[in-house]
Every structure is written in structure tokens, then in C-alpha cells.
Write a structure and sequence with these properties.
The chain is of the alpha+beta class. The protein is built from 25 helices and 17 strands. The strands form three sheets. A six-stranded antiparallel β-sheet has the order 2-3-1-9-8-10, covered by helices on one side. A six-stranded antiparallel β-sheet has the order 4-5-6-7-11-12. Strand 11 and strand 12 form a beta hairpin.
Length: about 625
């Protein structure tokens, strides 16, 4: 029985029904039909993983993990027997789930605002079909890889939402989180926005209760009937908060801490303090010499890669796979993490750009605090804050500076995205492809995720965190465990972003909104922490241990065969001693692409050919 949900959504038309019926013939595949009797949702899901309600010829479905039951869906669809039923659900449903509706010959499907649940679409037999995974569609239509988009994945830092969220499969497209896909009776598609961030007009005092209620609910409903559960416990405020909230309701709780070498960090100290506060939980500290180190396992990719696209967390992928095994060995059915806490509780530096224009006096104080922490030069700071380029102009600016020297670590980063760079080991072909895609996108005059730079970048970061959790969910599911990131539930995001950014995060206090919201539920000592651990020493140690393996990846690499990287230049970076881990972090997207390409090699069929009728079982 699967522990995760995987599905394809078909329009209420005859065009794609032959493929839908063939999918249904694979063992274990389940089917939900339109009122017309045509296949609507085809896939695999665990008991309770898909809830459907009907009223007349209307249908609504919720796929994923949510406390909303059939009774709630039934009431909604009876009140709104059309596609607007999804709007009513989307504003109130808790948890992390896809929503879909079928009514009047039309279909609507959407994921979550965070992007943990995503929607992809492609053309099949002349109509548009949707799925929750891009590789499902790629296999269904026989898509091959788009080298240009793979080149874009080499950029450091990660490219913005319009670029990074494009699947690397040709003719497979993603719906931007916060938007939905609507299919008509002829299988034509359009997208429209269903979610916008709330107005950030609440004070810390006014907004903290809503954050408290949303986060407590997000953890408690997940663990109360789960039985054995597990959580990360790094010693940080985010994972520590989740562990404490889980302990209130979990029948059995195991906390898992991965090892860390950073001698200057105090994560281990804080983790010990937190475990003392949770005497009824089992606390597992993975021994450093027995646990995988950074960069382990990249030669095989075992337990790390999935076919959807280049993996997240490639440096620490083997560590995460080990956590999956450890949690499964202890009977955990649910693993909770703290991912998303930084994204919603720590506003990016770019929020100062908006603050200078809306509240100049407050901005002066915030800028002084930020400069004290980061050592930004005064002139560069004010030039960055005065930059009035719109989003398309910023993308063009980045495109024209892709091969410029790396930005100074002390340079203010207050643009629509961090200043993008093509790594020095990328070939001219890769640089030209990335530049052309950026310029082409800029020429289409795209809208940002939100009008203000700070909110746009916050949402961009949330989407990137959502993509990472989406990836991790599939790895955990392979061990029979549900994976959850409560901070990335839509209701938690909305509560946090409703608080004014300059109160949500300040230079002199660490995550004041989270601390204020959790007062009385989580030990005050943890909420007063002002430091954050780093894994730089672990990165250096992992490179030393696995240098030979990493070098072997770039002896005739797949990326070099595609003409995207210079193997000799990559090997030079791997052999060089670096005063900071920045070059190694910049190498991570390249490693992810190479490991993914290798993981696909054994499974690959001839590109450009759709699967035969007897080869559909592995698609879902």
C-alpha cells in the first residue's frame, strides 16, 4: 500500500480517455470518474489519501494530508456545485493537499501556496492533462530533457521562480504555486491565480496569536492519531518548537539529531537542553563516524535521487536518507521537520527596499542594524536601496552579468533575486543558454510574485523550501513514512506573513514573532536563543573524505557530454583549498544535475517515444 499520493487528472473529454483507461489497467491503480463516467483522477494513494464528494454532476476531491473529512467536502460541494467549491475549500482547508473539482465539463486542479503540493501539465493526444509530478507526465508523453533548462539549473544562487520552477523535461510545464489549472471540455488549459499573500498590516502583538493557533493546529492534528512519530531536533528554534508541540499529542515520539563538526557552533549544546525538556521522548543522536558525511553516496545516488528532476540537498542527501532509515527502524509513521521556519520568520534584506519607501524613519533604524551585522558599505547600501528597476529589468540585468566576478559577501542583496552567476566551470554553451532564457523571460514582461521586493523574495524562498520538502516527501515515502513541514502549511504562512516584516524579524532579536507566538508552550530558554548553527566544517570534512568519488563523477561526466560543463574546471575546484565554503555551495547545483542524470541512465527509454500499453505500471 503506498504512503504517498500520485495521480494524473484528465479533462472531461474523449481526447485522452484511451491513455487514462490504459493507466487504469496497471496493478494497484485507482480511478475516480467524472459525472459523465469518463476517467477523472487516476493514480495510487493510501487509505484516506484521497477524499471525494459529489453533488449532482459536480465533484470535488482533496488529495494529500488534511484533517478535512468527507463531511466537510460534502457540505461545500452541495453549497457550491461548480468549480468555485475549490475556492471555498482553499480558503479554509488545513494541512497540505491538492484540491480538484469537476463540474459542467470543466476541471480545476491546484496545489498549495507553498509549493509543497505542485501541479504540472502537458499535452497528450491533443488535450491537456495534469499531474502532481513532472516525471509522471514525462513518461506518459515520452518527453526528453531540455538541455537549455538544465543549463539554467547550474546557476548560483538558485534562479528565480519563473526559471527554477520550469521542469527540465520538454513539453512539461509547472503551474506557479498560488495559481490553479483549469481545463475545459475540449482539453484546453488556462491558469489563474487563486492565492495572494495577506496584507502585512498586523503588529507583533496582534499577529502572534494567529501564528500560535495555526502552528499548534498544524502539528497537533498530524500527530494525535498517528501513533509513533519522529522529528528533527538540530537544536535550532524551528525544529525545537515542532518537537515540543509534537510531544504534547504524540503517543510515541523519537527526536533525531544528525552529527555536526562545527566547533564554534552551539547547536549540540542547545539540542541537549531541549532533550532534557522532553524526558518522555526517545532521543537519537547519530554518531558522526557511523553516519554518512556530507557528499557521501553521490557515486551511487542510492536513497537520494528521484526521477522528477535534479535533487535538493545533494550535499547532505545521504544524511537525509539515513534519517529516513533510522526513523523507519523505530516504527515512525510520520516525520516532522522545521523547514520553512527561516523563510516565513526571517524577512530577506530586500524588505528594506520597500520599508524605505513606506516608513523611512523605521527603515533608517533597520538599515543601521543590518549594516552593523553584515558590514555593508554605506554607499553600496544606499545605491542598492535606491535601485528602482522593475522585475523584468532586473532579470535582464542579471542576464547581462552572468559571467561577472562573484558578488562581494559584503554587497547588499536587495534586488528581486540574488545577483545570479554562471559558475566558472560552465561552458560557453551553457552560459549562452542561461543568458538567452533569462533575456527571453525578461522580454515577456513577467509579473513578480508580489508587488514589493521583500514579499516577492519571501514567496520565492517559500517556493524553494516547498520544492525541497516535495522532494523529501518522496524519499520518506519510500520508507513508509509521511513527511511534513508544518511551517509550510498555507494557514501558517498566511498567519506569519500578515505581520509587518520589520516586526516579524529585527536585527537585535532572532525570530521575535515565533518566540512571541510560542511563549508558554516552548521553554523560554530556547525562545531566547540568538545564534544559528552552521555546517561549514562538515562540508570541508565531507570533501576531504569523498574527494576521489567527486573527482570520478567528472571524468567524462554526463553534463560534459551534453556540452554544459568543463570537467577539468570542476576537478580543479574539487582539488583546491577554499577559504570559505561558497565555491562548494555553488558547485551543489552542478552535482545535483550530474547525480540525477546518472540515476536516470539505467531507466531511460528512447527519448521522444510514449510508453507502450504494457509499460505503464511504473508511471504512477
Amino acid at each position: 500500500m503506498p504512503t504517498d499520493v500520485s495521480f494524473v487528472v484528465f479533462p472531461d473529454s474523449d481526447g485522452s480517455q484511451a491513455a487514462a483507461r490504459r493507466l487504469c489497467d496497471a496493478p494497484g491503480v485507482q480511478l475516480v470518474s467524472h459525472a459523465s463516467g469518463r476517467p477523472w483522477i487516476v493514480g495510487r494513494w493510501p487509505v484516506g489519501g484521497l477524499t471525494v464528494a459529489a453533488a449532482g454532476r459536480a465533484r470535488v476531491a482533496l488529495a494529500g494530508h488534511s484533517p478535512a473529512g468527507a463531511d466537510h467536502l460534502d457540505r461545500v460541494v452541495r453549497q457550491r456545485p461548480d468549480l468555485s467549491a475549490v475556492d471555498a475549500l482553499a480558503r479554509t482547508v488545513r494541512g497540505s493537499a491538492h484540491l480538484a473539482a469537476s463540474a459542467g465539463g470543466k476541471v480545476r486542479v491546484q496545489g498549495t501556496a507553498s509549493g509543497v503540493r505542485r501541479v504540472f501539465h502537458s499535452r497528450l493526444d491533443g488535450v491537456t492533462v495534469a499531474a502532481d509530478r513532472p516525471d509522471t507526465l514525462a513518461r506518459l508523453i515520452g518527453a526528453d530533457i531540455d538541455d537549455e533548462l538544465l543549463a539554467l539549473r547550474l546557476l548560483a544562487p538558485t534562479a528565480s521562480y519563473l526559471l527554477n520552477e520550469r521542469p527540465v523535461w520538454r513539453k512539461v510545464h509547472q503551474v506557479t504555486p498560488g495559481h490553479c489549472l483549469v481545463l475545459d471540455a475540449e482539453g484546453r488549459a488556462r491558469t489563474t491565480r487563486w492565492w495572494t499573500p495577506p496584507a502585512a498590516d498586523r503588529s507583533l502583538e496582534d499577529g502572534a496569536p494567529a501564528v500560535r493557533d495555526a502552528l499548534v493546529d498544524a502539528v497537533h492534528w498530524r500527530v494525535k492519531d498517528t501513533g509513533a512519530a519522529s522529528t528533527d531536533l538540530s537544536g535550532g528554534m524551528d525544529s525545537g518548537t515542532v518537537a515540543h508541540l509534537a510531544a504534547y499529542k504524540a503517543a510515541s515520539l523519537t527526536t533525531i539529531r544528525t552529527p555536526q563538526l562545527d566547533r564554534g557552533g552551539d547547536d549540540a549544546l542547545w539540542a541537549r537542553r531541549l532533550t532534557d525538556q522532553l524526558p518522555d521522548a526517545e532521543h537519537l543522536l547519530l554518531e558522526y563516524e557511523q553516519a554518512p558525511t556530507m557528499f557521501a553516496g553521490l557515486d551511487t545516488g542510492e536513497g537520494m535521487t528521484v526521477p522528477a528532476g535534479p535533487p535538493h540537498w545533494v550535499r547532505s542527501g545521504a544524511r537525509f536518507a539515513d534519517v529516513c532509515r533510522q526513523a523507519a527502524d523505530r516504527g515512525s509513521r510520520l516525520h516532522l521537520c522545521g523547514h520553512g521556519g527561516d523563510e516565513i520568520f526571517v524577512p530577506p534584506a530586500s524588505h528594506l527596499h520597500s520599508l524605505v519607501r513606506s516608513h523611512p524613519r523605521l527603515a533608517m533604524r533597520a538599515v543601521r542594524g543590518r549594516r552593523a551585522m553584515t558590514r555593508w558599505p554605506l554607499g553600496a547600501t544606499w545605491r542598492a536601496l535606491a535601485d528602482s528597476r522593475d522585475f523584468p529589468s532586473w532579470l535582464a540585468h542579471c542576464a547581462n552579468r552572468l559571467d561577472a566576478p562573484p558578488a562581494s559577501p559584503f554587497a547588499p542583496q536587495t534586488g528581486w533575486t540574488p545577483m545570479l552567476r554562471i559558475p566558472p566551470w560552465a561552458t560557453p554553451k551553457a552560459a549562452d543558454a542561461a543568458r538567452e532564457l533569462l533575456l527571453r523571460t525578461a522580454g515577456e514582461h513577467p509579473e513578480p510574485l508580489a508587488p514589493g521586493l521583500g514579499t516577492h523574495e519571501t514567496l520565492d524562498r517559500i517556493h524553494l523550501a516547498g520544492a525541497a520538502v516535495h522532494y523529501a516527501e518522496r524519499l520518506m515515502a519510500a520508507h513508509g513514512i509521511r513527511f511534513a513541514a508544518p511551517y509550510l502549511d498555507d494557514r501558517v504562512i498566511e498567519a506569519a506573513l500578515a505581520v509587518r516584516p520589520h516586526e516579524r524579524g529585527t536585527p537585535d532579536r532572532y525570530k521575535p514573532l515565533l518566540a512571541h507566538a510560542m511563549r508558554g508552550l516552548v521553554p523560554d530558554t530556547m525562545l531566547q536563543r540568538t545564534t544559528k548553527g552552521a555546517y561549514d566544517e562538515d562540508t570541508y570534512n565531507g570533501l576531504r573524505r569523498h574527494r576521489r568519488t567527486l573527482l570520478s563523477l567528472f571524468e567524462g561526466s554526463r553534463l560534459a557530454r551534453l556540452g554544459l560543463v568543463d570537467d577539468a574546471a570542476v576537478r580543479n575546484v574539487l582539488r583546491t583549498s577554499h577559504p570559505t565554503v561558497v565555491p562548494l555551495r555553488d558547485l551543489e547545483p552542478t552535482l545535483a544535475c550530474e547525480v540525477w542524470l546518472r540515476s536516470r541512465a539505467a531507466q531511460e527509454r528512447s527519448p521522444g517515444t510514449a510508453p507502450a500499453a504494457d509499460d505503464l505500471e511504473g508511471i504512477l
